[in-house]
Amino acid sequence: MATRGSRTVYGLIGRNVGYSWSPLIHNTAFEALGMPCVYTIFDIADPALVGDALRGARALGIQGFSVTIPYKKTVVPFLAELSPEAEAIGAVNTIVNDNGRLAGHNTDIAGFAAPLMPWADRIRGKRVCIFGNGGAALAAVEAFRTFFRPSSVLLFVRELKKAEEMLAGYEHRGLVVPCRTGDLDLPLGGQQLQECSVIVNATPIGTAGRKDPVRSIVPAGRELFHPGQIVYDMVYNPLTTTLLDDARAAGAETVSGIEMLVAQAAQAFFIWTGKEMPVGTVRSVLMREIGEPAPGGRG
Prior knowledge:
alpha/beta, six-stranded parallel β-sheet, 2 domains
């Protein structure tokens, strides 16, 4: 694409997010569609500066943002309106600048749900579980509630207090049953996990480069996975984690975090531009950059 002339600017708001694949995803889509747009990173070191950043964005005419950790809740007071999804969980991952009026959306919810849709009948009315106590975990809870109607959501956390803090103010709190991850070492905890139709990792455990002594959310050697289950890891680097390897070896279906990454980005792209992201092209470029072949038949 030619570089002369003005470009519409979009970007990612976060802290220490130079590792993000979002610029590659969105710039690939803009280039594929021949759009005069560019996506970059806005690394904000201090949450106290978020308000100034958004006021500056309005003045400069920056048209939209993705928002990632730790600012998905921080941005909310500076926005003129929230979509129903963003309001449901009090968190925003996509901002649109409409002539100076900033609106917040949450595409994590639909993005999380997208790769699970082929198994919707298998999930409906069954118990599911999520590991994590942050915004990604709450987005997964809301996605299950909205799209799949499970009987209950087990939320595995290290400290029950953290689960209660996450769920404070959530309208559908009764759907969620907090559980201690330490209970997985007990027979009852293992049985609870085995009974879940879907197991989700919404923690960073297993991410490349982390120095965690634990490589998977599920204790090794317990044989807690089985055929018929779906194991979903939000971690997308590496594409194949220890959790997914163990699940696949036990005969379970697996979903890599790369699917959610692309799906939530595609929805944000549509919100900003009104155009469908060329998902197949984006996924192929992304897989090639990470060093894995693009999966056949996924578009």
